[in-house]
Amino acid sequence: MFGSYWVLWYKTSNSYSVVDDDFKHLLYDYLECASFDAFKSTIARVDSSLDADTIAKNLQSYLEQCNADHGSDELLSTDFIVSKRKISKQYVFKDKAFQIHFDSDLVEKTIHPSIAHLETENNVSPSVIFDVYIEDDSLCLFKNEALVRMVPKRNYHHIQGKFAMELLSFIHNKDESDWLGTFHGSTISDGENSVLCIGASGKGKSTLCALLSAKGFELLADDVSPMLAADAHIYHNPSAISLKKGAFNLLRPLVRGFDALPDTVFNTTKGVIKYLPCKTPNKDHYPCRAIIMVNYSKDSDTTLEPVSIKEVLETLIPESWLSPSPLHAKTFLDWLSKTPVYQLTYSDTEGVTEEITTCFNRFKNH
Question: Residue 40 and residue 38: Cα distance in Å, rounded?
Fold first, then answer.
């Protein structure tokens, strides 16, 4: 239980639902009653004016939705085509070397810009080779010539997410099954602890992390923040910060050489994007002490206030990947129960830097 809300996990669909106390009790009564007549009797004892038929129908519909199999494109398959290797890039992160082949400039833009700072012109012996290409209107990701994922090309973001998982597992010497999840959010650190920043697209979470990075904080991860099940720490993601055009004027005075960063245009919806590489943090991972919902609002005062877990999960869950393991689901909920959640509204750089510094100071010696 989180405040006045319960977070329920459904194993069949690996989905989470946030419900209030009244709904939870109704649901448990419904599940525990041996028959519909028994449920009607239970409802009548609670409140005879309630319509047991409607309540039962709504609860059954809710359970069907929560346990629905949403389908998967994992069953799609194709053979590896070596002739698709039109563009080749080599990358190095610390002592790890890897190579990616693409079949076109457009496909290259799905992966390369965020890791361009890791590219090397030196000849290296890659430990792993990825291939990303389009075949029959599907975008395919291969690892060492074995298919990892294949999706309709309009769902290219699924390939981006899967590649991020493969890369993170590679650089941290982990298997996918070791991860509790990858959160759609950006994570910053003060060198001891970390804070996960979440928010809908355009709310300013990446902008905030770029700003704080310029002010001396460490960027642990942007956009994809991986948490390991073994320690519930968030691990470093070396991808650059993705910044939309609306953030350029705010960051230009703070980031040296900002205008020299290449402009990337992948599609008209996202517009011009710059990718800002950040210094590698001192440690590979840090405990995550808080979740902050970020909201940039022009000319607003800077405020950091407690927020409902319901709002946080409705933002965090839909675009994150969470492990289907029951043990990992329990670890996630246990971590969540001990983690404060806030909403940050900000507009000026100094005010938000002070507020985040104060927030981190609360976690000292924990």
Answer: 5
Please report how many Cα atoms fall inside a 13 Å half-sphere around the Cα of residue 333, on the Cβ side.
Answer: 18
DSSP summary character for residue 82:
G
Has residue 361 got a pLDDT over 80?
Answer: yes
pLDDT band, very low/low/confident/very high, at 201 (cuts 50, 70, 90): confident
Give Cα 167 to chain centroid, integer Å: 15
DSSP state of 2: B
Using DSSP, state whether 129 is helix, strand or coil: strand
Q: Which residues contact 188 (CB under 8 A, 6 or more apart)?
A: 194, 195, 197, 209, 212, 213, 217, 218, 219, 220, 356
Q: How far apart are the first and last CA of the chain?
A: 23
Tell me the per-residue pLDDT of 31-84, one tens digit each, with 9 for 90 and over: 999 998 899 899 888 888 888 899 999 999 999 999 987 655 556 788 999 999
CA 237 to chain centroid: 11
Burial of 47 (0-12, 13-18, 19+ CB in 10 A): exposed
- Listed by start position, the domains of the chain span 5-66, 82-171, 179-361
- In tens, the pLDDT along 256-289 reads 999 999 999 887 777 899 999 999 999 999 999 9
How many Cβ atoms from other residues are within 10 Å of residue 66's Cβ?
16
Look at residue 348 in the predicted model and tell me its pLDDT.
86
Distance, CA of 86 to CA of 104 (rounded, Å): 7
**Cα torsion 300, 343, 236, 321: sign:** negative
Using DSSP's 3-state secondary structure scheme, residue 167 falls into helix
Average pLDDT over residues 305-309: 92
The domain over range 179-361 is classified in CATH as 3.40.50: yes
Please state the rounded mean pLDDT for residues 324-337: 94
Distances (CA, A) of 171 to 159, 185, 235: 18, 20, 10
